Amino acid sequence: MAKANESGQNTAARPLTDCPFPKRYPSQLIRDDVFFMTLAYNQAIDAWRRDEVPVGAVIEYGGDVIAAAHNQVESVGDPTAHAEMIALTQASNALGDWRLNGATLFVTKEPCPMCSGAALMARLARVVYAVPDAKMGCLGGVADLNGIASINHHLTITRGVLEEDCLELLQLFFRERRKTSTSAVDESQSID
Amino acid sequence: MAKANESGQNTAARPLTDCPFPKRYPSQLIRDDVFFMTLAYNQAIDAWRRDEVPVGAVIEYGGDVIAAAHNQVESVGDPTAHAEMIALTQASNALGDWRLNGATLFVTKEPCPMCSGAALMARLARVVYAVPDAKMGCLGGVADLNGIASINHHLTITRGVLEEDCLELLQLFFRERRKTSTSAVDESQSID
Fold this sequence. Notes:
- The structure is a homodimer.
- Chain A is built from 5 helices and 5 strands; from the N terminus they run αββααβαββα.
- By secondary structure, chain A is α/β, with parallel strands linked by helices.
- In chain A, strands 2-1-3-4-5 form a 5-stranded mixed sheet.
- The radius of gyration of chain A is 16 Å and the shape is globular.
């Protein structure tokens, strides 16, 4: 349960590899799943620009964005600082309640075991993810925590929104990183 | 990913029901599993004293305690503020690395889906828990995230250390809470 680096400043002058993808500016008038996932995609670009595995998350409630975060594991040095976890904390602060009933999490990659569990514990209404993760994903990928009957909450899941774009971002990040990194690359969030 | 309430002060004058169990002071000379779990038990008592579900966690590394925390979901209003999550953040701060290789988590109840996943993501060597949780536990209880081959890390698990004492604490807390609480009791961490 980390304190996120709220300044969002990168300490390095520039990332190991530049992110070649630009941010997007969707119309505010159509607030559908693609709209919110596009904002999560922009967060993933922010992660890359800070040398983090490019995963972004946004939480929607009543048509508004109440949380937006990207992966910060390396910059804050905390294994719990995934995009989803930071967004869940932001959302509970915004709503003044740890129970996020009625809220939807948009995330660019299927949540890992920790974040899948956190989505359940937070009592989200819905999780929408872009890229399935057959290796680590626990909302239908390698396991389905949402399908366990005795867990006292269940989520509505939507898969594949903006999948190609978010996959391209992740794949190129790891491809570039394997070429340029002088140290071992953490592959736990790669989707190969 | 919450910021823990570091002051540890309770805003209420006294808990809804007093914790009838005293803390314990084991010898520092024998640093076995019972020693570290006893410290986790004391953390669980601290949780009760602050009207939180009594779950406590301690992380050991090289024979020393590098993290000690209790559940703070209600007091900080954050679904990610479980004892284990706060302890993982403390431990990564202590070691200066998000990879907690060689460290052992002691926790008074089998970790929930989120915390089981976090133990894997943090690359702990070992998790020792007191009370199995057949309803929510994901390290052998209702599911076994540690048994998924494609997840890139695996834990050594020890179950049942100080089980009776930690179970008694949880059971009495929920029994008393159901009698006295004017609002709905969150049962997601009960073990009935």
